[in-house]
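Summary of Year 1 activities. Much of the first year was spent building the evaluation harness for sequence design. The harness presents a backbone, in tokenized form, and records the residue chosen at every position. We chose the following record to illustrate the format because it has been used consistently in internal testing since the harness was completed.
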């Protein structure tokens, strides 16, 4: 009878050892999955940061070009003209009107209402 009890106790010990081993494997597997998830997030963040870096480098290049242009007299004059819409004393403004655009303004000028026609008649214009 004693060997039977020892056999049962031996099997019982093996089951506990297996259960503990399975639990440890589950915890280790969960940790591995968490680390892999963080790794994937890091790769996505790296791609986003590289894209942002490229954008910032392009902006930096554009700003450097603008800065270099503003260091010249011509660049300063151009910037002032664009920003404030100014002209030199001896400059004149030329407006070029398309033939098609001219026709459309003529037709709108001819289309006046009957009330406008009466007002123009009495005003003498």
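For this record, the design step produced the sequence shown next.
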């Amino acid at each position: 009878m004693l060997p039977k009890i020892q056999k049962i106790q031996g099997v019982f010990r093996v089951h506990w050892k297996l259960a503990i081993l399975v639990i440890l494997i589950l915890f280790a597997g969960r940790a591995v999955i968490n680390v892999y998830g963080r790794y994937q997030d890091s790769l996505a963040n790296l791609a986003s940061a590289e894209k942002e870096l490229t954008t910032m480098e392009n902006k930096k290049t554009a700003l450097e070009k603008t800065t270099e242009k503003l260091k010249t007299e011509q660049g300063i004059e151009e910037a002032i003209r664009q920003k404030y819409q100014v002209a030199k004393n001896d400059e004149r403004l030329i407006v070029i009107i398309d033939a098609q655009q001219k026709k459309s303004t003529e037709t709108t000028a001819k289309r006046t209402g009957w009330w406008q026609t009466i007002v123009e008649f009495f005003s003498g214009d």
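The CA atoms of residues 111 and 117 lie 10 Å apart. Quantitative recovery figures across the full test set are reported in Table 2.
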